[in-house]
Amino acid sequence: MAEGYDFLRFLFTKYSESEYLTEAWTPIHVVLKQFLQNSSENFQSMSYQTIYCQIYKSTCKGYKERLFDDLKKLIIEHCQNIKLQLDESMKRMIDDRSNRHKNIYILQFINYLHQFQRAIDVIAPLFHYLVSVFVFKI
């Protein structure tokens, strides 16, 4: 019976800052970026269960606020990068005043929107353990 308590003690022992960054956030961050960018470039394979367990452990160890803030920063950073790319396309479209660039811009926007929706559809269930209070902060 003592073994069960040792496991619970381990599970709920708070991470140090460096442990959070190396053991929890860095692997989660890499996978989330892959989801958001929807790319196979430098793909690091990690099972859904592994990611889910890391998020659950981080939540149990008292880092749900930090995890939520880091997730929010990552998504904001991704959206800002997309905005810059779309602004560049918009500038080319305005400079050239061609229908071809308008079509490219529209297709690019639709593509980014679909990529983002697919990424959010995968990311949202992973963060189930973040209390709904933090989800409604957005």
Automatic annotation (TrEMBL):
This is Uncharacterized protein. InterPro entries: CACUL1, Cullin_repeat-like_dom_sf. One of its GO terms (molecular function) is protein kinase binding. It comes from Adineta steineri. It comes from the Eukaryota. One of its GO terms (biological process) is G1/S transition of mitotic cell cycle.
